[in-house]
Design brief:
heterodimer, A: 107 residues, mainly beta, 7-stranded mixed sheet, B: 120 residues, globular
């Protein structure tokens, strides 16, 4: 199974900050990675697919990069609605796996 | 507007069975793979399994943790997805999400989730 390790697991930041979350895969997954955002009590929402393509309707302050085994999600100029938990997910091979999540909280 | 509405959750004893349903609307259901993803209370996301579309013979894939106990199926005439769960364990307690898989295999739409609690 492909393991995804996110860092950090917890992040405290302020409105207006720029933050970066990393997702490392245990083996190469090309660009077969997505990022999801989940707010408390809600279903996850797709933010980025193919490692760097923004899903329709997602603000441009979100961006993704990387390929192979290391990927990043960057949020520039944090907004109040961005405080949530973020998950990476690989679709290179079965079983489909998620990172453990990064909880982004307001400082 | 794409909508995925899960139902059928509830409290079940260990060793019991439960069937979840997901009613889909707003897209051509038969054209897409569909998945189930779950989330234990306070934990992360765990993929449960997938059912492919008719042109892929409705074949399925499962996570090792549920393989042999859970069965995913679909009824395209009813725009519905199902998750038959048997031999339930306390560790199966989770919110279960129905997920639409787009043509590039990304999870583009999620249902609101249905809670399954396995407890005596």
């Amino acid at each position: 199974d492909i393991q995804l390790t996110q860092s950090p697991s917890f992040l405290s930041a302020s409105v207006g900050d720029r933050v970066t979350i990393t997702c490392r895969a245990s083996q190469g997954i090309n660009s077969n990675l997505a990022w999801h955002q989940q707010k408390p009590g809600k279903a996850p929402k797709l933010l980025i697919y193919a490692a760097s393509t923004l899903q329709s309707g997602v603000p441009s302050r979100f961006s993704g990069s990387g390929s192979g085994t290391e990927f990043t999600l960057t949020i520039t100029s944090l907004q109040p609605e961005d405080f949530a938990t973020y998950y990476c997910r690989q679709l290179q091979s079965y079983p489909i796996t998620f990172g453990q999540g990064t909880r982004l909280e307001i400082k | 507007e794409v909508q995925l509405v899960e139902s059928g959750g509830g409290l079940v004893q260990p060793g019991g069975s439960l069937r979840l349903s997901c009613a889909a609307s707003g897209f051509s259901f038969s054209d897409y793979y569909m998945d189930w993803v779950r989330q234990a209370p306070g934990k992360g996301l765990e993929w449960v399994g997938r059912v492919r579309k008719r042109t892929n013979s409705y074949t399925t894939e499962y996570a090792a943790s549920v393989n042999g106990r859970f069965t995913i199926s679909r009824d395209d005439s009813k725009n519905s997805l199902y998750l038959q769960m048997s031999s339930l364990k306390t560790e199966d307690t989770a919110m279960y999400y129905c997920v639409k898989v787009d043509s590039k295999f990304y999870f583009d739409y999620w249902g609101q989730g249905v809670l399954v609690t396995v407890s005596s």
